[in-house]
Amino acid sequence: MSEIDDIVAGAFPPLRATDDLKRQAATWGERERFIVARLDGKTSAETIAALWTDGNATPMVAGQVKIFCDQLAERGLVG
After folding, report:
1. Residue 46 contacts by C-beta under 8 Å, 6 or more apart in sequence?
2. 20 to 30 A from 4, CA-CA: which of 10, 28, 29, 64?
3. pLDDT at position 79, please?
4. Is residue 4 a part of any domain in this protein?
5. Distances from the Cα of 23 to the Cα of 1, 17, 19, 38, 72, angstroms
6. Residue 41 to residue 44: CA distance in whole angstroms
7. Is residue 2 part of a domain?
């Protein structure tokens, strides 16, 4: 399992927010700001979703984080 995890992590590394993204996100909704604040190149989409869900009444799933990150990537806002 750890070999598979390493392969997946290599193919899909966690994203890092650009400075431009951080500036833009300051005006966005709470969920979006929460995600952007955790795009540090280390934190997985699964972890971000779990952290949100632990502290909020409305759950978030990793798929939501990944779709949002895909949209950010299309705009060149993540690295």
Report:
1. 62, 65
2. 64
3. 85
4. no
5. 38, 10, 6, 14, 13
6. 8
7. no
CA gap 24, 1 in Å, rounded: 38
Residue 56 DSSP one-character state: -
Residue 58: domain span: 14-74
Q: From CA 16, how far away is CA 39, in angstroms rounded?
A: 5
Q: What is the mean pLDDT of each run of 10 residues along the chain (79 residues)?
A: 78 87 96 97 94 95 95 94
pLDDT of residue 78: 94
pTM given for the model: 0.84
Q: What backbone torsions phi and psi does residue 40 show, to the nearest 5 degrees? A: -110, 10
